[in-house]
TrEMBL record:
Residues 29-285 form the PBP domain. This is Phosphate-binding protein. Residues 1-19 form the signal peptide. Keywords: Periplasm, Phosphate transport, Secreted, Signal, Transport. SUPFAM superfamilies: Periplasmic binding protein-like II. NCBIfam families: ptsS_2 (TIGR02136). It comes from the Bacteria. Its main location: periplasm. It comes from Alteromonas lipolytica.
Length: 318
């Protein structure tokens, strides 16, 4: 019995020390259920966060539904979710619907930085793509200035697959925030070509590219595997920008983006303790380490302070 007591005491001290060492102080009375509905891009990260948060707060349970960013706003509006992960910002129509239901806008918290990568299989020798080439490959409308439709690898100077080999295109589906943002950023809000094969998740896109001869697809960079390579992108062939931590965080890589957690917070009122503590953890040093672990990029320190104020945290920094 004494050994059990000493063991439990050791575990309790270890968890508290672990939290404090990483800049996150546990608070008493945190329990309940968090329901998350939204982005597939954030699915793995939400799982990592929830698992570690449960280590700190064993009386908390999570329900995570990763059905696409477009499912987050209605779930929050209707009260069927407490947190809405999104890989894009809210649309005006989504914001209006929430305001009509609650009388105030939702609170949008930036929690990580991501990049939409254009992947090819690892052995593909293509050095990169200009933004006009991206438009010519993926778009039927070419609003970004693509001069001609590009459908074959030979049009990009690649004979690796043969002179008539087609580019096999893979895309996220239309409920995805990645789909919507790529449509705006890469196609100038144009239409996708009908030859694009839509996939239910970023992992499916990456797997399809890696296993398809002559495949190309866009997906969240955090889902990369050893079988694919992210292409450098730029305005010209001489100014291609590789996808690195530095180019994403300084936003020089063309398709950089924030990842968000959206919550229902009434003006002048604090968030419920459970939601506040979870967001405080996500924005802590430990939570941001999980961002890096999942292949994404942490929020800059100056921006973290602004997000903490939105959460209602009075301290200047955790």
């Amino acid at each position: 019995m004494q050994r059990l007591f000493i063991f439990l005491l050791f575990v309790g001290v270890s968890i508290n020390a672990y939290a404090n060492d990483e800049g996150f102080e546990r608070k008493p009375g945190v329990a309940g259920n968090i329901t998350s509905v939204g982005s597939d891009t954030l699915a793995n990260l939400m799982t990592l966060w929830s698992q570690e948060f449960k280590t700190l707060y064993p009386d908390v349970t999570f329900q995570i539904q990763a059905s696409g960013s477009s499912t987050a706003p209605p779930a929050l509006t209707e009260g069927t979710a407490t947190i809405g992960p999104m890989s894009r910002d809210l649309k005006p129509s989504e914001r209006r619907a929430f305001i009509q239901a609650h009388g105030y806008p939702p609170t949008v918290i930036k929690v990580a930085i991501d990049a939409i990568a254009i992947f090819v299989e690892r052995s593909n020798p293509l050095p990169g793509l200009t933004l006009k080439q991206v438009d010519s490959i993926f778009s039927a409308t070419r609003y970004c200035g693509g001069e001609e439709r590009i459908t074959r690898w030979s049009q990009l100077g690649i004979g690796y697959y043969g002179q008539t080999a087609p580019i096999r295109l893979f895309s996220r589906n239309s409920v995805s925030g990645t789909y919507g943002l790529f449509k705006i950023m890469a196609l100038c809000d144009g239409d996708f070509t009908k030859s694009v094969n839509e996939q239910p998740g970023s992992a499916s896109v990456v797997l399809s590219v890696a296993s398809s001869k002559g495949g190309m697809g866009y997906a969240a960079y955090g889902y990369r595997t050893a079988g694919v390579r992210a292409l450098p992108l730029g305005n010209t062939a001489n100014t291609l920008i590789p996808l690195t931590s530095e180019t994403v965080q300084n936003e020089s890589y063309p398709f950089s983006r924030f990842l968000y957690l959206v919550v229902n917070k009434a003006p002048g009122e604090p968030l419920p303790k459970l939601e506040r503590e979870f967001l405080r953890y996500v924005l802590s040093a430990r939570g941001q380490q999980q961002v890096e672990r999942d292949g994404y990029f942490p929020i800059r320190q100056d921006m973290l302070k602004l997000q903490l104020r939105l959460v209602g945290e009075k301290t200047t920094m955790l």
